[in-house]
UniProtKB/TrEMBL annotation:
Oligomeric and partner information: Homodimer.
Protein name: Histidinol-phosphate aminotransferase
Taxonomic classification: Bacteria, Pseudomonadati, Pseudomonadota, Gammaproteobacteria, Lysobacterales
HAMAP family in alphabetical order: HisC_aminotrans_2
InterPro entries in the record: Aminotrans_II_pyridoxalP_BS, Aminotransferase_I/II_large, HisP_aminotrans, PyrdxlP-dep_Trfase, PyrdxlP-dep_Trfase_major, PyrdxlP-dep_Trfase_small
Family according to the record: Belongs to the class-II pyridoxal-phosphate-dependent aminotransferase family. Histidinol-phosphate aminotransferase subfamily.
Pathway(s) served: Amino-acid biosynthesis; L-histidine biosynthesis; L-histidine from 5-phospho-alpha-D-ribose 1-diphosphate: step 7/9
Amino acid sequence: MSVLELARAEIRALVPYSSARMEAAGGQLLLNANESAWAPFGDAGLDCHRYPDPQPAALVERLAALYGVRREQLLVGRGSDEAIDLLVRAFCRAGKDAILVQPPTFGMYAVCARVQDAAVVEVPLSVDFTVDAGAVLAAVTPAVKLVFVCAPNNPTGAGVSPETIERLARGLAGRALLVVDEAYAEFAEDAGAAALLDRYEHLAVLRTLSKAWALAGARIGCLLAHADVIALLRRILPPYPLPRPCVAAAMEALSPQGQAAAHERIEVVCTERTQMTSALRRLPGVRAVLPSQANFLAVRFDDVGAVYRRLFDAGIVVRDVRRYPGLGDALRITLGTPEENARVLAVLGEGA
Ligand code: PMP
């Protein structure tokens, strides 16, 4: 089955909304979108009185170059969260189809599926939190349209080997769309899966500017996939999803100076990750620090409740991941600046 045939027939047949900005290409006097003719107070040259381009060409071009794909293989939206939602809505029929996830993993895949009334097939990660590709492939029934792999995984931080990704891509070809979520890929050793897109049409990759690019507040995320999938999802993307100030912030962050700054920050995070991992492992009360390929650490404690409270009382909020299977004694701690990480260590050290 081609990747397009996996998608819902009614989405393939949908006549999409045609936004005014799509009609206006090349126009000089724009009187087709009921906008204000005047810029708002304090506009700073952003032209916020105009609707933005639904897929700003300059941003799409820059992101495509960054990820090494063609423009028609890329959709940009409001964070990778929006891409997850679009995929589920385009591929899963309510009450009939399913997605496959591997707990403990990022919660939005299952939430989007439930909103769409799609089933959620769970194939837990192995005890060491690696992906069990054989078990995943064995669990894919015809109802499963999307298989999510989080690489590196949130909340464990574990990377997924390129061999595993490729084995899944090969095994799912013609059966389901493999969605590799690479929100944390910039912090990982392995190159991402985008390079495989030309070989596997049933592959999609999620990327985001929220983590390594320091733009969580601008909500810019991408889906990289076969051009047919991108064209399909562009039809259901709400009109004008990307606010002009967010696009401007992304263009700045992706400029040559912005890229240099991002790479410096990534290096700092990776160095901090190594140092924090060793420092935490030396602290009494710490059972384990899971090896991480991301910008956070999952840490197991003897008395996780007391540690959470101690950090909280010191004004430090970390993610309580105790509800995740296999992580009942763990907290997920985002790596901050060296000073912030030193504060975490000091508070944990005091109570030891
Ligand atoms: N995927 C993973 C694995 C994440 O951890 C997150 C953010 N927590 C997202 C996707 C969503 O990121 P965003 O919508 O900001 O791009």
